[in-house]
Amino acid sequence: INAEYMGIDRNRMASLGSPSPLERSVSSVERHPSAIEPPHNPFVCAMLTDMYQITMAYGYWKADRHNEHSVFDLFFRKNPFHGEFTVFAGLEESLRLITRFHFSDSDVAYLRTLLTTCEDGFFDWLRTVNCSGVRVYAMHEGTVCFPRVPVMRLEGPLAVVQLLETPLLNLVNFPSLVCTNAARFRRAVGPTKTLLEFGVRRAQGPDGAISASRYAYMGGFNGTSNVLSGKLFGMDVKGTHAHSFVTSFVGMENLKFRMLKSTDGKEEDFVAMVEGLRSSLQIPGINFQSTNTGELAAFISYALAFPAGCLCLVDTYDTLCSGVPNFICVALALHRLGYRAIGVRLDSGDLAYLSKQVRKMFQKVTDSSGINLADCVIVASNDLNEATLLSLKHQGHQIDTFGIGTHLVTCQAQPALGCVYKLVEINGQPRIKLSEEREKVTLPGRKAAYRLYGSDSVPLFDIMLNADSPAPVAGQRILCQHPFDAAKRAYVTPTTVEPLHHLVWDGTNTCPLPSLNEVKARVQRGINSLREDHTRDSNPTPYKVSVDTPLYNHLHSLWLQAAPIKEIS
C-alpha cells in the first residue's frame, strides 16, 4: 500500500514505532497452502475498530475483569431485501483476522495519544493481546441462515472477545449481504443463465469492489469484469469493449491492418471480405448497406484482435438497423476463416424486445446462409436489478448472459444487513439484553443450533438449545417453540438433524478452509433445499426459528428477573 496514497505521514508513523498493517505490502495476498494467510485487505487488523471497544477494554482491565470467560453471539435480526433467507459469508476473512489479531508497537503508541489518562500497564497488556485463548464456533461459510440464529459464537477472555466485535461485524455484514443479493439474482434468472459481475466502477471504493466480486461469485455468479479479483480468487474474468471503442472509429481508413490468418494458416484480406459481404448480403428484413461504417470498422478491428472471441457491443448507434447487421457481416466473415463469433451485447433500450428481435435476425441468417448464428450469445447489461430480471423472464426474453453492476455491488435495494454482536454469558452466567422492541431481546446463554429436516429432506425448523444439552436425535420427537410467542409451537420428528455450529478456531485453526467453488456449491445446495415458498420473490413464507423448552423457560425466567417492576400511582 502506498503510504502517501493512504494519507499516512511516514515521519509520524516512524516516530510511533514499527510499521502498522497499513504500511505492509499487498504482496501478502499471495496464497500459501501451509497456513491461514493474512486478510486480503491490509486495513483488516486490530485497529479497524470503534473507539468504544478500546475504552471498554480499558474498563475491563481497570476492573481486573479482562480475563473473565465470556460468550458472544454474532447474528442478525431480519432477512434482507424483503426476503426470508440470508447467506452467511465472510468466515474465511474473519479467521484470517483472528489468526493475526494483535496490536503492534506503533498501534499502542498511537492509542497512548488518545488515552492519555490510562495506566501504562494497560498498554503493556495491549501488546500481549492475541486470540490464543479464544474459541470460535461458526456455521460453514455459504450456509443459508435465518434471523436470531448465531452465525458465529465466540468464547474467551472478555476484553479480547470484546475487541473482536467491530472488525468481525465489518467482515460479515457486507459479505453476507452481497452474497445474499447475488443468490437472489441467481434465483431470478434461473440456473442456466450466465451472470457476470460488472460493478468495479460503481462499488464503494477498492475494497467494496474486490469484496463484491468475491461474494457475488460465491452467491452464484459465473465471473467478473474485475481483473484483480480474478487474480486473487481464480474467478473467470470477462470483458470485450465499450462504446468508446466503437466511436473511436470513423471509417475504414482507421483500419491500418487488413489481413487475418485463417485457422488453417492462410492469410486473407479480412476487411475486403467483410465489405464484400456487406454489399452482397440479401436477407429479407435486414438492411446491411445503410449501417454505420465507423461501427463496422470498429467490429472488424476487434475481430482482427480477437478472432476467436469476438463479442460486439451493438447499441452505439442503432441496435437493429446498424449494430446487429454489422456484427452479422463480421461473424460470417470469421466463419469463412474457420472462427466462430461469440455474440453481441445490449446495453440500452427495451432489452426483452431487442433480445427477441436479435434472435430472430440470427435465425434468419442461419436459415438463409446455412451458417449457424442462431446460437450466438446475447449479453445484456444496463443497470439491471432483481425486479428487472424477473420482468424480463415474464416477457420471454432471449438473453443468455447478464452483466450486473450497480444494484449488485452496492446492494442498492438494502445497503446494510444489520448483524449485531451481543454478550450472552459471563463466567458461566447467562446474560440477557432487554428492549421495548421484542425483536431486540437477546437469547441468553451459550447455545448450539441445529437444522431439523423432514422426510423429503426439506428443512423444517432451526432450533436452538443450551450448548451443553444433548443434541436432537433423528426419529425422536422434539417440541419447537417460538422464542417469544407461547402459542407458536409444534412437535417435530426430524428424519435428519444437522448441527449448524462447528469449532473453527481453538487458539488455532481447527479445520481446512474450503475453496471458493466449494462454498459456492454449498450456497446453491442450501437454497435449493428450501421450500419454494421460502424463496419466492413475492410474499415469501418466513422460515421457522425456534428454541427448545428448557431454553424457552430460561429465557423468560431471566427476562422477568432482569426487567424492573414499574410502580404506577
Entry keywords:
569 residues; alpha/beta; elongated; single chain; disordered N terminus
The CA-CA distance between the termini, in Å, is 65 Å
- C-alpha-based Rg, rounded: 29 Å
Shape: elongated
Supply the helix-strand structural class. alpha/beta
Helicity, as a percent range: 25-40%
Question: What does the average pLDDT come to?
Answer: 93
Low-confidence spans: pLDDT under 50, at least 5 residues? 1-34
Q: What's the count of strands?
A: 23
Largest sheet: 7 strands, parallel
**In what range is the share of β-strand residues?**
15-25%
Order the strands across the largest sheet as they lie in space: 8-7-6-14-13-12-11
Helix tally equals 19
Describe the structure.
- With 569 residues, the protein is of the alpha/beta class.
- The protein is built from 19 helices and 23 strands.
- Strand 7, helix 9 and strand 8 form a beta-alpha-beta unit.
- The chain starts with 9 loop residues before the first helix and ends in a 7-residue tail after the last helix.
Task: Summarize the model shown.
The chain has 569 residues and is α/β, with parallel strands linked by helices. The longest helix is centred in the first third of the chain and has 25 residues, at 165-189.
Record the SSE blueprint.
Blueprint: H1 10-16, H2 51-62, E1 69-75, E2 86-87, H3 91-99, H4 105-114, H5 120-126, E3 135-138, E4 144-145, E5 152-157, H6 158-163, H7 165-189, E6 194-197, H8 205-218, E7 223-224, H9 227-233, E8 236-237, H10 243-247, E9 259-261, E10 267-269, H11 270-280, H12 293-305, E11 311-313, H13 319-336, E12 343-346, H14 351-369, E13 377-380, H15 386-394, E14 401-404, H16 406-409, E15 420-426, E16 429-430, E17 447-453, E18 459-466, E19 478-481, E20 489-492, E21 496-499, E22 502-506, H17 516-529, H18 532-535, E23 544-547, H19 549-562
Parallel strand pairs: 6-7, 6-14, 7-8, 11-12, 12-13, 13-14, 18-23
Antiparallel strand pairs: 1-5, 1-15, 2-4, 3-5, 3-22, 9-10, 15-16, 17-18, 17-21, 19-20
